[in-house]
Structures
1.
Amino acid sequence: MPELPEVETVRRGLAPVMEGRRILRVEQRRADLRFPLPERFAERLAGQRIDRLARQAKFLSVFLSGGEVLVMHLGMTGRFTVSGQLTGDFHHETGSLAAHDHVVFHLEGGETVTYNDPRRFGFMELWPAEAFAAYPRLIAMGPEPLSNRFSPAYLDEALRGKAAPIKAALLDQKVIAGLGNIYVCEALFRAGISPKRLSRTIPGQRAARLAPAINAVIAEAIEAGGSSISDFAAADGALGYFQHRFDVYDREGEACKRCGGTVQRIVQSGRSTFYCGGCQR
Ligand code: ZN
């Protein structure tokens, strides 16, 4: 499942292809993804110039010359591939994958940007640019890692009095935007904090370790081009581009890189948590 670093990697892959170009036409191959696609979707996009491709948390926002924003979310298995003159060789042209190509953007210059999503938890919506600050799916979200609003002091405030385990609190997008299972596990390991610890015990010294740990794992993952677990690909279709350098995630039974203990797996809120009981307290 793409998390913030993966979505940022996609944005960086798509921006040079999309920004400044006009959308000639859009092939819409189904009526819905996770939600119904907007009414007259292809018609509203045709002829628009793409002014800017931005990202907020795990949302990609395409600012269009006509005053609307195309908001896109990759869900669990969404990905974009780019073909055409700019990028040359192209992957994923097999029949089985093409069956999950749901939306194809034909851009001026001949490039195509194809949205493929086997499980269809992703979605696309159109929203007026002038009201984008009030886009409902973003308005309730907490600050992003690496943003000015995110700090130990913010974590103190957000976690104070909360009974939920810290693992669950960090997955809550209202607390921090853009984190998912992988980077929560990694950040808690980095900070030496048990995923089972109650959130209300974090403010103070632990928050002072946790906030920089979250920033560090996210910054390193963006640097590495995101991290792929299953069927996620970079925007340029370069499968295998991603690094697999997790300290604890998906390493059950292996040696802890810090203390030599054994990485354990537990299930919290229905999701696997990987951690070292020896050095995460
Ligand atoms: Zn350890």
2.
Amino acid sequence: MAETNILSGKVVSDAVYAALEDRIKALSDNHSAVPGLAAVIIGEDPASEVYVRNKTRRFRNMNLHSETIRLPEETSQEELLSTIRTLNHDPVFHGILVQLPLPKHIDTDVVINAIIPEKDVDGFHPENLGRLTAGKPRFIPCTPKGIMRILEHSHIDPSGKHAVVLGRSNIVGRPMSILLSQKQAYSNATTTICHSGTSDLRVITKQADILVAALGAPEMIDDSYIKEDVIIIDVGINRVPDDSEKGYKLVGDVNFDSVQGIAQSITPVPGGVGPMTIAMLVENTVEAAESLYA
Ligand code: NDP
């Protein structure tokens, strides 16, 4: 049984950061500009806290500017929109992210639409999603962009392959399917997108040469869903209770042990897609700063 190759997002993200150094220096030398990110977090969701901390820590490590704006759970939608309008006009910030999910009394679409597309470094604004769909992207959502980068870095060319994407969210599954089907190098796959309305998922997943799991279903995808030599991208980040001090461990949407020796390659959780999401956020923010001087 051949060993399954691990696709490390850590290794690829380190290469991304190294490649960004010159661009950051050029912004500083030529324009005295430091790419800046405003991260807005509402409420006290522990997972959101970790995500925002990891993102802003990376900005600090790269000597970039980042500020976290913390708002209480009971913040009204209008107050949040007012904060975003202020950030839209603040030249210190080239990128704005609002950490999701938002409290139930706030309409996520209204909030995303309020960020000006030029600072929407998450790539969730309808204008940016529309541009991506039309093949003329501005900011590509960080997680799918990071996955494409892992494939390219690993010399896995999706062209001519059958890529199956599990999940159709606007932040992962849908943009992922668009990127994989674009007519360009390191894309050009025949792409199928599955969701909770898909009947007999296994019939489709067993056809996949590349399988992207973005379900939010802990370890759901096991050996019964795959064919031999499939390349698996496990996007899922799920907290499941355990006996550790933290009281939980992180698992993906794929049962990692079950697919060993069958899959050709797999991204681990943690250490796979997660680090790439952060790297692409940094890259998008650098791009946002550069676009001011293009
Ligand atoms: P959403 O909940 O928004 O979307 C999940 C999608 O999976 C939906 O389209 C849903 O179908 C589909 N789905 C769920 N269960 C099943 C099932 N049993 N069978 C078929 N389809 C199913 O999640 P996200 O896209 O935001 O995130 C997905 C996962 O990725 C989560 O674990 C999240 O934590 C993780 N994530 C990881 C990131 C990273 O950096 N690694 C970044 C972002 C997310 P339907 O549309 O019909 O409801």
3.
Amino acid sequence: MKILVTGGAGFIGSNFVYYELAHSDDEIVCLDALTYAGNLETLEDALKNEKFKFVKGDITDRAFINKLFEEERFDIVVNFAAESHVDRSIENPEIFLKTNIIGTSVLMDASLKYGVKRYHQVSTDEVYGDLPLDRPDLMFTETTPIHTSSPYSASKASADLLVGAYHRTFGLQATISRCSNNYGPYHFPEKLIPLMISRALNDESLPVYGDGANVRDWLYVEDHCAAIDLIIRKGKVGEVYNIGGHNEKSNLEVVKTVLRILGKPESLITFVTDRKGHDRRYAIDPAKIHAELGWLPQTDFDTGIKKTVEWYLNNKDWWEHIINGEYQDYYKKMYENR
Ligand code: NAD
Ligand code: TYD
């Protein structure tokens, strides 16, 4: 089979490329626009594999996408391509609407036109909004109403609704997965965990938003890739699957864990002005994917966070190339005077 992986030069997409190259015989074509978040260095090893091909292009470019689908005749499309950072969506929502909503519709139109057998939309638990901190019994299930907080989550929810509409109206063979926060190798250092690791290694202050009590449900990225692999091969068309591993941690706990592993002092922690509309708590109930597809996460948080810190220690070149570039301007703009 031939699988199109969009956004495969980003964090989760690249981990999925490596997961498929290691676990299947399928041909993988990665399509990525190489925005600030895409990085070809990440795919250096994949590019040596004859089952893999990289194509640079934009999912919102209809003529280009149609030509690619006509030439390649994909069996499966897995759409990771997105603008993915909440803080950037608060600064400027427009590109989120274009890439995350229009891009999804362009890919689905091409999937219908060229007979794709399965279209999979990689979505997020953020479409469900947030949960209160004082109700640990509450978790997101697949039937929790969509209730978004940020322009990012609103754009992802809009795309999910379109996927549902294309399935019902046009018969698109589609599935959706909604995963909790991922962490692991190749995570762009604007997101919490890699930001804290890279800054702590340079003995720089660690900006924690608000009181640091917000809770995220962390999943090691390889477990997410394994879940998507199961869904595209065995999942039921028209269904939504939640993915998460019951690893709820407050941001402060996460940052302190990183500091402990690195042997750095907690005095690096600096509380800064809270994010606007900041979701309090996310927590996934993964009962459905476990019961229907037998998926269970393999990596607990203690193991995964140690592996992740080790990866950043062993791959300094990868993240230093990023933080030494235009990223400097981004950090100044978002954090100076905060
Ligand atoms: P990322 O920002 O690291 O990567 C996104 C990739 O998409 C980049 O390589 C970028 O170049 C590419 N891209 C952006 N716009 C494009 C366009 N118009 N055309 C083609 N390529 C384009 O994001 P990520 O963290 O790897 O997230 C991947 C997907 O998973 C997203 O859809 C995101 O919503 C979803 N998700 C992420 C998490 C998480 O914790 N990171 C959790 C759940 C779901
Ligand atoms: P992030 O990695 O941006 O993921 P998301 O907002 O999609 O969950 O942020 C994770 C949590 O960490 C979130 O509650 C915001 C918080 N955070 C900080 O406290 N400081 C930071 O510098 C960043 C980037 C995030």
